[in-house]
């Protein structure tokens, strides 16, 4: 089974802050963009390798028609098990992409969010960068 890679920097690179905030303004928009990036080359089931799918129980989820395994759009991405709203997670990723050395305390002040929330998600992003050489997550 071949892995695909989502490089968020390619999505963010042409956006200024106002365009970013408009594009990633809601959970719905974030899920839509993530789904199109994740499955740009088609769906491949992580369990059995099947390529045919139906709609899952939640929005943008896909259910393999071969093994019936359901995969959410955030599964196998840096947003998997993310306990903060997706627009906030995308904004942290956007800011870290633009300024990798930005301090978590600065993120916290800019986004009016808990310091530990920013620190933990920034750490997740930077680990992804370190393991893949860019802001991408093998899925």
Count of DSSP helices? 6
| Order of helical and strand elements | EHHHEEEHHHE
User: Numbering strands along the chain, what is their spatial order in the largest sheet?
Assistant: 2-3-4
Helical coverage, percent range:
40-55%
N-C termini distance? 11 Å
Shape: elongated
Largest sheet: 3 strands, antiparallel
User: How many beta-strand segments?
Assistant: 5
Structural class: mainly alpha
Kindly estimate the percentage of residues that lie in beta strands according to DSSP: 5-15%
Low-confidence stretches: 1-5
Mean pLDDT across all amino acids = 86
How many structurally independent domains? Answer: 2
Whole-angstrom Rg = 15 Å
Give structural notes.
Mean pLDDT is 86; it is low at 1-5. The protein has 6 helices and 5 strands; from the N terminus they run E-H-H-H-E-E-E-H-H-H-E. Helix 4 (86-98) packs across helix 6. It is elongated. It folds into 2 domains: 8-38 and 78-134, no CATH class; 42-73. With 139 residues, it is mainly α.
